[in-house]
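User: Hello, can you help with two protein structures?

Assistant: Certainly.
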Amino acid sequence: MLNNRKVRLMTRLAMYEQTEGKEDVRLSKYFQTDYVRVNVLKTVVSITFGYLLILLLLVVYHSEYLIREAVTLDYRGMILRYVGLYVIILTVYCALAMIGYMIKYRKSRKKLAKYFRMLRRLRSMYREEDGELTDLEEENVSYDSDNT
């Protein structure tokens, strides 16, 4: 006979495994600090590449002005301004990335804990069924031995 509670639980477990579970299991292989560091490092590389690309586009866009005023430009001031802007942008994005990835990791751990609780509940349901079957088998054995 089908146990509806067990079927529903197995369905919820399967749905979790098919959707969010893959990502959560992948995240569980890391310690929180390692996961956050790797992703903040990815953020630093992405921000640096994007910032350099934007600077290159600005140089190309203003190339006529830069060539015309090449002798009179304050290069030191420009470099300090753009490096300062880069540091500010990088700091803000790294802080936001660190907070965001910590939150993502903790939510993932909570979902995994809930998943494992559901697995334990399913295992206990199977044990209860096995216990009932074992009791029935013992009764059949004793009944058969009485008839012989």
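That covers the first. Now for the second protein you mentioned:
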Amino acid sequence: METMFWVWLAVIVVGIIVELVTFELVSIWFSAGAVIPFILAGIGGIRVEIQIAVFVVVAAVLIIFVRKYAQKWLFRNMKDKTNIDSLVGKECRLLEDTDFEKNGTVKINDITWTAVSVDGNLIKKGSFVEIVNVNGNKLLVRKIEEKRQISEDSEEIKPENKQSQENKTENKGE
């Protein structure tokens, strides 16, 4: 067999190994692009220049036209939030005062987190806050201005419903 047969086989194997290690969907297209020149080298009688040209064209076409769709299909579930990312946007009650210099705390899912005011303003203990960002092991929070209620057995904050607000105003009037 011709030596190019073994070269193309090596390109295929190395590309697959690199792809398995990195999983970036780059080297796999070079492996796929080497399949046709591998077959051409196995048939024999095809010049090396033609094999290389076929390799370059096939690999380029695959990278340009197929990679984007393959990434969307393979990584479609990767946009789901991870543990830390899922905290952003949650609302909870502040357990200790906090400002930009003084750390406060919040409790989410039975875990106590350090909380810092994102704008540097003092936020008093018991205030409702929204998690804006996560910086290392600190949650950057901002005070929620509108009136809300929290259930005793849940860290999630729920807006007060209109019926409970109406009952409160009726009871005050009596």
